[in-house]
Amino acid sequence: MIKKFCILLTVIFVYSCGSSSKVRTASSKNSTTKKHTTVKTHTGGTKSGNAGENAKPTEVLEATSKLKVTTEIVNEYISKFKETAKDNMRNHGIPASITLAQGILESGAGVGTLCIKANNHFGIKCHAGWTGESVRHDDDAEQECFRKYSDPAESFRDHSLFLTTRSRYAALFKLPKGDYTAWAKGLKNAGYATDPKYPDKLIGLIERYELYKYDSEVIGAGYNKPVIKKETPIVTNKVAEDGTTYRVSQGDTLYSISKKFNVTVDELIKINNLTSNAISIGQILKVKS
């Protein structure tokens, strides 16, 4: 009898352990919940190989994306879209130099995330009334709404319409088409960008890549690109002994001279009584008032 009783207790114990294990397993499975992940668009710099291997000149561009690109990529972008920019200048009155500089800066010379995802070359957000396609992209705030285009030409055209149809940009179209400095500053003053250095970035790109020549091709006049006649000797850079004047030489621009003497372009224009950015080889400029 005692033996049977012990066997019975053993069976009951084994059965209870098995049931407890099943309950724990079921409880563990029921406690698992699904996680929802929000994917955000972040754009970083491009990775590079060995530092000294095939090094090429680079350009750091930062607007809707921050990218480091080679000057070769920038030149390819210019070559690809210069005619589009010139056509838009003829049709809408926006300097081709400004359009190209904005495109280079805002799109990362065509390799920025927003440009690749949405053909958006100018960082134009959706704004009220936009009924076209859109994408989300981190900018001043996370996951902001940006316009999406079917091709780059549509983006360039919409950029022109964006400026010509909004009253806050009306003052721009009273400026000379060849005065890219005034246009760059006017865009910032009208609220196109929040970056205080935006005008300098545009002017720097225009100067380095000589984008002003495309304005000249449209308006039919030489601008800030002096032509050297065969009989004209090339004058080397030379600062007067008192350090207050400078003789303009081949390749000089007001922007490059302002950087050389740590003054602003506006100061150079003012102290030399200039009416535009145009200068010529051999011209004597005051660099100190």
What do these coordinates show?
By secondary structure, this protein is mainly alpha-helical. The chain has two domains: 58-219, Lysozyme, CATH 1.10.530.10; 238-286, LysM domain (Membrane-bound Lytic Murein Transglycosylase D, Chain A, Roll). The chain is 43% helix and 9% strand. It has helices at 2-30, 71-92, 96-107, 113-118, 152-164, 180-189, 198-208, 212-219, 254-260, 265-271; strands at 58-62, 66-70, 134-137, 144-147, 238-239, 245-247, 284-286. It has a three-stranded antiparallel beta sheet with strand order 5-6-7, with no helix packed on it. Strands 1-2 form a two-stranded antiparallel ribbon. A two-stranded antiparallel sheet has the order 3-4. The longest helix is centred in the N-terminal third of the chain and has 29 residues, at 2-30. The protein is elongated. The relative contact order is 0.09.
Beta-strand content? 5-15%
CATH topology of the largest domain: Lysozyme
- The low-confidence runs, each spanning 5 or more residues with pLDDT under 50, are 19-53, 222-241
Instruction: State the domain count.
Output: 2
- Radius of gyration from the CA trace? 31 Å
CATH architecture of the largest domain: Orthogonal Bundle
Average pLDDT, rounded to a whole number, is: 76
CATH classification, class level of the largest domain: Mainly Alpha
Q: Which structural class matches the secondary elements?
A: mainly alpha
- What is the molecular shape? elongated
Task: Going across the biggest sheet, name each strand in turn.
Answer: 5-6-7
Distance between the termini: 121 Å
Q: Helix fraction? A: 40-55%
